[in-house]
Design goal:
Layout lengths: L1 H17 L1 H37 L3 E5 L5 H13 L3 E7 L1 H11 L4 H5 L9 E6 L5 H8 L5 E6 L1 H43 L1 H9 L4 H39 L12 H28 L5
Antiparallel strand pairs: 1-3, 1-4, 2-3
Helix pairs in contact: 1-9, 2-7, 2-9, 2-10, 7-9, 7-10, 9-10
Amino acid sequence: MPLKLGYFTRETAISLRRNLLMTAAGVLTVAVSLFLFGGVLLLSRMVEHGTSRWKDDVELEIFMVSDATDGQVKAIEAELDKSPDVRDFRPLTKQDAYEVFRRMFKDEPEVLENVDADILPRSFRVAPTDPELTEEIAARFVGRPGVDDVLTAKEQVDRVLSAIRWVRRLFFGIAAVQLASALVLIVNTIRLATVARRREIEVMKLVGATNWFIRLPYMLEGLAQGLVGASGAFVAIYVLKVILSNLVSGSKDLFNTFYLTNGDAFAIGFIILAIGALVGAIGSAIGLRRLMEV
């Protein structure tokens, strides 16, 4: 068995060296395609982490008109208090609204000079029991006496998620084309190797070598191309994870809820390795199918 293992390893290495240019092209194509595929998966995981926090923290805000009466404000408060769909709510006074306004325009003193608390509206910040109920709750208060507007984050969140879905599909499509190209390159590499050694293969058959004994070095060659390319993609994916983590960690806007873990990168990396090995094995099988028939 050690002798056979040494033979298979030696023959695989010889075949890889003989078709060095095709081998390098196959490895690079596998690496690029799997990096694109893994990169999309990594971005998807980051989005899932970020949007799960959004979904757990979805709120809507009910803005009263600036001259709303105390009775109108209390009516809205009473309805929110008794609603089974509302998990929690917080009344914001005119002064609270002014503090928020000051934080938003702290770098524009000329704007702050012309605004005081009296002209700002009171409001209610509402957290539903289920994020799916946000729009339903908002619809109940639109047009009510004293209510000026009801705002939710649904439109903005949907727009971000829609853009991300389209980008994901685009990169998955590019990765699929690249993987198909890698498969073709591996098939051609194996076929060239068997054609170059056809005479040697015929001699091996004459002395009693089985088809599997002859095929195994070529199958290992395809597997090696797939695994080496996938390993390069694995490393690149981890580097991408570090870069993305550094970018979002310093963010102070909407994307500060996004994050990635080492577990995400390694899980995707192992998926990439499995796909790389599968592409290599399939490429070898196709490359050997016609040329090695008994």
